[in-house]
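User: Fold this; tokens only.

Assistant: Input:
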Amino acid sequence: MAVRAVSSQGLERIAAFEGFRAHATALPDGRHTIGFGHVASARAGAVISRVDALLLLRHDLQPIEMALRGHVRAPLTQGQFDALASFAFNIGLDAFLASDVLRLVNAGEPIAAALAMSDWRAAQVHGRLMTVDALVRRRVAEMDLFLTPPADAMHPAAPTPMLRPQRAPAGAASPSCVDGTEAAAPPPGEPPPSEADRTVETEPSPPPLRSIDQTMAAIRARLQDVGVRPLAAAPPPRVAEPSPPPAGPADAAASPGAARSAATSAAPPEPRAPGPA
């Protein structure tokens, strides 16, 4: 069965990459972001819970999922789908559709496609294009997820005495290889699909969102329509009632009955006379 959506584990991974913001944060271009990288309906002063932020992230990933279903022609594992969704969400959908990553995936070169992700590790910082450590770590994690076989598949090994690593020439393209065996070439007479051959599924786009409240209402209505039970917020923690302080001398004097009761309960039991042997 073809993978068609980001898994719950993939959603949590993307959320961890984005980081959670309970309060709307201003961006340099005047917009705001809130939750896990949500921008469309974020406004100054808005506040959101983590549960609602995850629903917003799921909503924001819908255009990414549609693009992967429509533009990726190669079969994908769940890990590969999640990795590409995280990558596309981070660099932007237009940039992903024009990237070497998508081209190489469709050309049947998964290793080259994963390596091409590492090109997207720089960002503008104070007006300068700089390599960002967080982006380097995110690209490495996405590459690892993309190349990791499913749990029920054999994990290829690379024994050092048999495959001694060498430094690849800069910019050189080498054929993909798995466990010392070259990857299978595409069938003869079947070139990789071109952009004109790709078909995009005509799925309805998510409606534009104008506020956090409207966003959450639209998402919950959509989940109810498809029979998915929305996540419930965690109940507030129970606060234990404080135990009364032990009675002091003044309290004992004020309550003689309580003092006698305490003395009786504190007195050791009287010994019983031994019975006949």
